[in-house]
Fold:
Amino acid sequence: MKVIAFNGSPHNYGVIQKALSLMASALEKEGIETGIVQAGEDIRGCIDCRKCKELGKCVFDDDLVNRAAEMTAGADGIIIGSPVYYGGIAGNFKCFLDRLFFSGLRLDFKPASALVSCRRSGGINVFHQLNNYFNLAGAVITPSIYWGVVHGNSPEELAEDKEGIFIAENAARNMAWLIKALALGKKEIPLPAATARPRTNFIR
Ligand SMILES: Cc1cc2nc3c(=O)[nH]c(=O)nc-3n(C[C@H](O)[C@H](O)[C@H](O)COP(=O)(O)O)c2cc1C
Structure:
């Protein structure tokens, strides 16, 4: 059993990396292998060319996005972590997520967890923004005891946010349980059958 975690910070030595590594340790204690992938570096945004609808993957094949889709398909759970930039998802990571999900990534009944870091505020907005991707992709959003936001401008400051760390590690433990429970449950209870979706655009 495996979880893939995407670090949406532009660097791999900051708060999100540290918080994800704590989540990875908590998952590994529960027997779930966890890989952290750097996904916040220079990544171009979605250009709405709709080629992905023909190709089944993003037309830009020269960066992480299509490989990330393959990694996620092979994983039992997914974590996405972003720092807050001006009250929103960090820019490069937003580009990554838009292309990853718009090009068709499905997470049906796969446990998913969002993690945000900030110095002071904007965390809850970004937590909801990250969960928007999971909601549309059919993921099972992992519960914790509070919104997944940790505080700090550095890993040293993060270490002082004991409650934030607890919330993140608790989400990881819950994800491990969900992965195991879903694997057992799927043996007994088939997933709901997919039904045709009506699609309506509201044009006035
Ligand atoms: C461009 C930029 C914008 C930021 N905007 C916010 C903000 O709106 N609110 C906040 O609390 N922190 C803000 N921060 C601070 C980061 O969110 C914070 O240091 C975060 O924990 C960094 O995570 P990282 O070390 O993994 O990159 C901003 C930092 C940068 C570089």
